[in-house]
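Possible regression after last week's pipeline update?

I re-ran a chain I had predicted before the update to compare outputs. Posting the input and the new output here so someone can diff against the archived version. Not blocking, just want to make sure nothing changed silently.
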Amino acid sequence: MERLPKVAIPAIIAVIVLIIILAKSAVTVDSGKAGVLYKTFGGGVVTDEPALGEGFHVIAPWNKVYIYEVRQQEIFEKMSALSSNGLDIKLDASIWFQPEYENLGKLHQEKSEMYVERILLPAVRSAARSVVGRYTPEQLYSSKRDAIQAEIFEETKNYVDDQYIQLNDILVRDVTLPPTIKDAIERKLKQEQESLEYEFRLVTASKEAEKVIIEAQGKADANRILSASLTDKILQDKGIEATVKLSESSNSKVIVIGSGESGLPIILGNQ
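New output (post-update):
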């Protein structure tokens, strides 16, 4: 077996080293992500330049790149807080967020890759405890769900606005009360609903009765006015007019003038 020339060994070593250097220097940033460059001999984390965007990048082999997800992300959080009367309330929430792209270097330098656990989640928990403590269990269970969601979002946003985190929304998916309190609230709500339905029926019946009274009063007034206007003279004139019309009919008849009560004619005859 022939021995390799002496010059071949250093060449092979040089090729191996070159491959290692190229491997260390090549960085690919995937879709929806960005890279923070760390210069080992150049001041550490780069904060005054844009983060490395998607695609292929070549860096010095002694430097490092830390990859961050920069798309909107969602985390689910279960939290406990005390209501205004000291009862334990459990919340299930979804948190929508993403790091501020233009401040990614500062986020890495000051908060690290653990920014969600160190900054965001403690802020959400603190805001939830503060907001829930303003309301009773009944308010949290029924009418104030949207209100507490908005307030938790606003308070959390105030906490993280200067922490290089973009908070997009917080959704309260469920509010869990102690079983005995939940049952009591549901019974009370049912009773209130039944009371409202009863009051509605009473109001409806009252309006119907009022309508009947008004209609009856109208008819009575009309009859009274009509009776007051029908004098004996008017009735006699009406009778004479009717007699004249009957006398003009072709049917056989006998008309006795002045024989009826009040001097009205009496009509005798058959068809």
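Follow-up from reviewer: compared with the archived run. Residues 179-229 form the longest helix (51 residues). Marking as no regression found.
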